[in-house]
Amino acid sequence: MVDCELDVVFHWQRNRGGAPGVRLNGGRGERRLPWYQGVVEDPVRAKTPVLPLPVRTRPAVPADLDAVTALSGALWPERPVGEHREHAAAILSGAPPSTLPLTLIVAEVEGHVAGFIEVGLRSHADGCDTRYPVGFVEGWYVQSRYQRRSVGRALMTAAEDWSRAQGAREIASDTWIDEEPSQHAHQALGFEVVDRCVHFRKLLTSVDAGRVPQQAAENREGGPPSREGAK
Q: 21-201: CATH homologous superfamily?
């Protein structure tokens, strides 16, 4: 079988809970990012037919900690290695930083860990049926030399199977609105676009900066002085 799939590398942000994080681009800078960012190699090369590799997917185990940490470090070199290790170790120990199930799945090619996918369960996701929990892809990474060889597809299939076992009827994901390669990769694997949006923020400051110290003092003293006390 010849495979023309577009394997994609994804970044995710570590503060789980649904809020957008900051972008890596490759690293986490100041641009806002929804959970992870797709990156692909030369798009012309990505369309070249290639033969799939014999890949085996399985749940990650504590013995995979070094491999997953190394893959995370290759994906986010500007982040401390200890942060990657701590996050992966928490999941592998059965105490993930989430109130809902969260797991790591690895892909092996000839005994070598070639990539991983992190998938969790969410109570809801944009465009999904709110009556059921949703599987959500928090992170997805395939080493460059294994891309376009069915490794990414195998990882996504494993994530879908895990989500079904958790009672989910849908699996969701997201990426940058201008990241067309990531969008194409999702669609090639059966995902459909359900929404497009732009996120805004505004810093709230005091209308009268000079009133802030007075208000703080009043709060400490139990409020403004009474009429009698002011005479």
A: Gcn5-related N-acetyltransferase (GNAT) (3.40.630.30)
